[in-house]
Write a structure and sequence with these properties.
heterodimer; A: 300 residues; alpha/beta; Rossmann fold; 2 domains; 6-stranded mixed sheet; two-stranded antiparallel ribbon; 10 helices; 10 strands; 26% strand; B: 693 residues; alpha+beta; Immunoglobulin-like; 5-stranded mixed sheet; 13 helices; 23% helix; 30% strand
Chain lengths: 300, 693
Amino acid sequence: MATPTASKTEDLLDPEFIVRLERLEMVSKKIFHGSMRGERRSRRRGESAEFADHRNYVVGDDLRFLDWNVYARLERLFIKLFLEEVDLHVNIMVDVSKSMAWGNPDKGRYARQIAAALSYVGLANNDRVSVYSFANGLVGELAGMRGKRLLPKLLDHLQTIECDGISDFHAACKQFSLRHSQPGILIVLSDFFDKGGFEPGLRLLLGRKSDVYCIQVLAPDELEPQLSGELRLTDVEDEDVAEVSMSRALINRYKQNLRAYCRGLQDYCTRRGMTYAMTCSDVPFDQVVLNVLRRRGLFK
Amino acid sequence: MNFLSGWMPIAVAAGITIPPLVLLYFLKLRRAPRTVSTTLLWKRAVEDLQVNAPFQRIRNNLLLWLQLLVLLLAAFALGKPIFEGSRQTEDTLVLLIDHSASMGVEEKDGRTRLDIAKEQAEAIIDSMPSGGKAMLIGFSDRATVASAFETDRSVLKDRLDSIPQTDAASTLTEGIALAEAYMQNLVIAGGESEPDITVESSATPARVVILTDGNIEDAETLTIKRLPTDDMQIVSIGERDDNVAILSMEAKRNYEYPQMLEVFSLVRNFGPNTIRCDANLYINDRHVDVQSMELKPGIEVSPSEDETEADSDESSQPKPATRKSNLVPLTGSTASVAFDPIEYEGGGVVEVRLTVDDAMSADNAAWTIVQPPRHVSVLEVGEGNLFLDRVLPTLPIQVKKMTPDEYERADETEIAEAGRLKFDLAIFDNHSTERLWPGSYIFFGGVPNIEGVSADRMVQGGIIFDWDESHPILRYVGIGRIMIHQWLNLTLPPQAEPLVEGEDAPVMALLSQDGMHFLISAFSLVAEDEITGQALLNSDWGFKPHFPVFLQNAIQYMTGSLSFKGVRNVRPGNPIEFAVPDNTEEINVRRPDGFVAKVQTGNFTTVNYAGTRKVGVYSAEPAVEGREQYAVNLFNGTESSVAPSKVLKLAGTNVQATASVEIVNKPFWPYLLLAILAVLLIEWAIYSKRIFV
């Protein structure tokens, strides 16, 4: 069993890269409640070893948290407050619609590599990691993993996902929101090319008070189309057809529209406290994880 | 619609350019299939380009510049650009188009010279500047205005087509006169609003273009007054020079044996090659005889000196034929054909036809009309002339005598019949009269009192300068050896043919006028003494042995019973005078081409039919017996000499003829269209290269 696991690990994650990932730890900009005490500090004052503050004693407080030293000096009762350490829910949504299988290198594998890396960071820090795959809804789920021992299972799951179906981001987000009520970190890996628009889906994710990271994965051919002549373009998902006469003007217009689309996504995310990052599938994914997301504040 | 260059270039151009264009069109339509992650952004981009197209910033696009160039060229072409020649563009154009017999020569491409001349004329009309006007004159033996000054080109072309081919001779005097007359009217009409303009000071620029093969009879004697001769252009039409022609033909009955018919013909080769051909004799379309002959070249094929020098570097090129002389035939180029005498007592059509394939067919046949043999009736009017009285009875003729008084008092029915002279010939001796009917007359010492003929005084002791020995009347007659005491100083119309020339005026002449044919001798053999009134000898001619010969020649010639020249033979274009039978209102004239023309008689005794454009036999129905048929023959060496002249002596000036029309305003738009086509092809090529994978 060890060999195939190692093989799968190598497929998606490089062992050396895994070592580097172990040094990372996900941080949330908020203090989150967990269902059990974890290793993570939250802003909620609770029972942990790390002192946070004092407050006046009121009747009914646990006498165990009275600060007797202060009482000795001031003869007044104060309660010691400690930062409560909670566990973190790390949810990763990976787009597996048919359009993610497009590109060279294909975007689907690239997205799964990033998902694997981020999941491993969460597992390594004993966070509660859930990985969801979505196309026209949630099509795969591996929820509630904790601990590095579940890495092979995670990778096995990511390996077996096939990119198929039409993208319906709104439906996927709706299902996710109904099923997952815990706040935490939500990382969405997608090209966000949804003809229904990305806004309705993202709006649903905001309601969960999650720390949302939108990572847009594009292929090099999407950024710099290498097309010319009279073409009949077919949408890989819904087989919609567009007949175009390629010209420099048209390609420039396409690039303008792509930039505008990406900027629209970025603006939408920024205004609503989400974090946006865009990457191309020909950029080494470890750089994205180690540099780009680090700069965005996902890791410390 | 007409195309100057014909359909072939258009077909070739279309065949070369259209298939690639269609191919490119199909290539453009074939779209290569491609799969993309989403069509969302592409559709939006296409829509953006379409929506923003009218207002987008003009980009530096080669296709745009090419299309702009096409539009500019098309707009330029709409302005009807022309190549301006070295000469000033004339607003007024006079086109003189030769449609004489020689213009009917069929050239190597199957077109006649007249067809070629019309095409050249169309090209000139097409090159006229906007608002320019042209006049069309067709000329042969007479000139007709096909179109007065006209600005509408389609009208001009229609009128051009209406110029017919004739078998007539070619003269230019009348055409030039017509052009000058119209030019004068034009100037006066144009000058009405500007009284200062006079005919002499007219500076109306007019270009005169003569389209001819150069065989113009009166070119040298032409006088041109108002047309600008220095700017006159002559376009030489045609190239062929091979032609054999019948120049004359005569059918006469033997004097002693009138039942024997003798036919003579003169044939001449005008071409550069030796010709062997047969002359066939037909009587009433029945083949009677054939004579073979060999005719040596009629023109010398050798380069002229000027051309040798000019073309020294092109010595390998064949040299054009040059005519040494048109008037004097080269030795061996002519042949007199004398058919064996034929016993034929009937009347009808005698035809000589050459079996030869040459440039012109109108001169390969000749016709004449013969009558059954009969005795000639002669009316002798005079006081009595010893010599006439002695000679006339010896001739095989019937003579009736009258004194001048009897003649003047005689009832018309005694002298005339059906509006014509009852006798074959009337001989007047020392008598002038105005009682004349259509017929033949000989005057000795008197004149017919008709318009243009007069004798004002007597010439005594005059000298005979010249006489025409070759004329049938003076054949074997030694005029130079006779003595004449006095003769009348004759004044004759220009068309009179002098036979004997005196010091100031003709002494003997032939004249045909108003259906009457005269041989006028200014002297008689006897003259009345002014004092005694006795007959005195005026000339010793009566004692000479050749006087009977002269009288016989004259009677034969004038009666036409033996010689028909000038009586029943008509030149193309000249009118035929048909005698009208009694109580006839309409005469049907059948032309050689089979067309029957109806001629109203209008109660006249004779009618003229002028539609003799073609050679052949013209017959009338009904007609006076013996006057049913007339022959129209070319008999014109100038027309039969079909080799086109490269230099024309026009009004005393040598004018070099050009081979084709010099188009002053050459249209430029065809070149623009070619340029547009080329630019469009380049544009298509660039466009296809950009979009085709």
